[in-house]
Amino acid sequence: MDESPSASDRELLEELRRHRAELRESMSALEDALASPAVSDLSRWTQRVEAALAEVSGDFRAHVDLTEGPKGLYLELLQTSPRLAGAVDGLTRDHLLVGGQLDDLLTRVAGPDVVADVDGVRSSATALLGRLVRHRQRGADLVFEAYEFDIGGET
C-alpha cells in the first residue's frame, strides 16, 4: 500500500463505487434483454436490447470520464503509484475496445439486418458483457492495490 486515500480521493472512490453499481445494473438489464424471446416480437426485443445497450454505453462512458478524465483516478494513481502504470495502460486499452464494441452493437441493433442477426447480436453482446465483467474486476483490483480500499459497488 502506498498511502491511505485523501479526502478528495475518497470522494472520487465513492463516486466510482456509485457508478460501478450503475454499470452493473445496466449490464444486468442488457443480459435480461438479450435473454428475452426475439422470435415472438422482434421489434420489442430490438427496442429492449437497444435501450439496454444505450444505458450500458452511457454508464461506461461516465466510467471512462471518471477514470481517464483530467481529475480522474488514473492520473492520480500514475502520480502517486507509478508502479501501477501497466495496469492503468491495460484498463485504458480496454476502454477503447469496449467503446468500439458498444458502438458496433448499437449500430447493428439499429440497422435493418437485425432480423437476420439476432444470434450474432446475442453472441457479440454476451462477449461484451464478459469483457466488462473482467474489466470491472481488474479495476477493483487496481484500486485495492493502490489504496487497500474496496470499491465494491455490487447491488
UniProtKB/TrEMBL annotation:
The organism's superkingdom is given as Bacteria
Q: Spell out the protein name for this chain.
A: Hemerythrin-like domain-containing protein
